[in-house]
Amino acid sequence: MALQMESQAPPIKVETWLRGEPLASFQPGKVYVVEFWATWCGPCAAAALQLVQLQEKYKDAGLEVVGVAADEDASSPVEARAKLGAWLAEKCPDLNYRIAFDPTGEMNKLWREPSFSVGIPTSFVVDRDSHIAFIGHPRQLDEVLPKVLNGNWRGSDEAKAGDTARIARSGAIAREQALKKPINDRFWAAIKIEDWKTALSAIEEGIALVPDDINFRLAHVHLLLHRMHDMQKGMPVMRQLVRDAIDRNSENWMLAALGQLFGPAHDHSHFPSAERFAMGKKLSEHILALNPPQGDGPKFRSYPAVARYYYDSGNKDRAIELLRLALKSLDGPELTSDALKQHLLPDLLQALASYKGGRAVTALSMRLRKAFSRRYQSAIGRGKYIKRGVNLNVYWPIRPFPWRDRSK
Questions:
Q1: DSSP string spanning 339-390?
Q2: CA dihedral 157, 159, 162, 163 (to 10 degrees)
Q3: What is the pLDDT of residue 276?
Q4: By three-state DSSP, how is residue 176 classified?
C-alpha cells in the first residue's frame, strides 16, 4: 500500500538509539520530522544543520525531530554503528534531536519503499494526529513546516498538488531503480572486493539497459581510467562522455566529466596531458557559458570544479577569480539556506587559500559569516556540524540511489 499525504504514519521500529531517548510511538498533539540520512551522504550533513535549527526554533510548538540512519555503507552492523558513533561524536557533539540506527532495513521497508523515496536525505513530517503531512527533501521544510505546525498545510491545494507531483516523479524513478537494482547489487559487490572486471561487466550491462544514465556512464569512465588504468579503452569512453555532456548542455553531466579529468581525489599522471586539458577547456567554457560570471545563477556548485581546471592549467588568477565568485554567490540573492552555506564555506575558503599560496582570506570569510543569523550561530556553534571535504564536484563513488536526479 502506498504511503502518501494523509496516510497513517508507520510505526518506528528501531532497537538502537544513538542519541536521545527511544521513541516508542508518536504522541498526539506533537509534530514529528522523521529524517532518513547516512554519514556518506553530503547533502545529509547540510540537512543536519537545518534540522538542528528547526528543532531549536519550533521545540515550544511541539516539534520533535528523529534522525534514522538506515543506509550506512559498512560490512556489518557493528562496523556501521562504530562509524555512526564516531561521526556523531566529531560532527554533532551537541545534537538536539534523536538519532536511531536501523541495520535491519525494517524502517526502509515501512517508510521509504511504500512512499517511493528512492534516495536520501528524505524527510517525513508526521502531523499532530499521527498522519503523514509531507514527504520530500529537507530543503522544503523551511516553507512547509510552519504551515504544518499552524494546521494550514494538509488541506491546502498546494500540499495536494505537491504530493501528487512527488508520487508521479518518484514512482517513475522507483520503477527504473527496480530494473537497475540487480545490476547495482552486482556492481557494488564487485567493488567491495576490487573485482574491477566484474564491476565493469555489470556497468556495461547497465549502459545497454539505460544508455543515458549518468551514474552508469560515470562509473564506466571511472573504472577504466582510475581503477583499471586502461587508457586504450578508457579515453574513447571519456571523449564520448564529454561530447554527450556538451551536446546535452547539462551542468550535471559536464561537472561529472570535469571531475574525472581534474578531481583532486584522482591521479591523472597517466592521462595524455594535452587531450586532458583540451577536454577540460571545452567543458569549462561551456559551463561558464551556461552560467556566466555576470549572470545571476548560483556559482557555488560548478565554479569550484572549473577553478580546479584553470589552476591545474596554470591560470591561477582565473582560478582565484572563479572561487571568489563562488563564495560571493553564497551571500547572494539566491535561495541558499544557512545550512548549505555553513556546509560549503570552509571548503571554498580552504581551496581559495590554497590557490593563493596560503595567504589569508580572513576578511572575506568574516564578511560571509556575518550573513548567517546570530541566533543560528549561537544555537549550533560554529563548525560543530560542518562535514569537511564536501563533494563540490562529482567524483566517486556514485551511490546506487542518489537523491538528486542526474539524468538531465
A1: HHHHHHHHHHHHHHHHHTTS---HHHHHHHHTTS-HHHHHHH-TTTT--SS-
A2: -120
A3: 97
A4: helix
Cα–Cα distance measured from residue 407 to residue 341, given in angstroms and rounded to the nearest whole number: 26
Is residue 22 very low, low, confident or very high in pLDDT (cuts 50, 70, 90)? very high
Highest mean pLDDT among 31-35, 112-116, 299-303, 402-406: 31-35
Count CB neighbours of 140 within 10 A: 14
191-214 pLDDT, tens digit each: 989 999 999 999 999 999 989 999
pTM of the model: 0.62
Residue type at 386 in one-letter notation: I
Q: How far is CA 198 from the centre of its chain?
A: 27
| Stretch (H or E) spanning 50 | helix 42-58
**Spatial distance between the Cα atoms of 281 and 51, rounded to a whole number of angstroms:** 40
The cell for 359 is 595567504
Smallest CA-to-CA distance from 361 within 320, 330, 300 is with 320
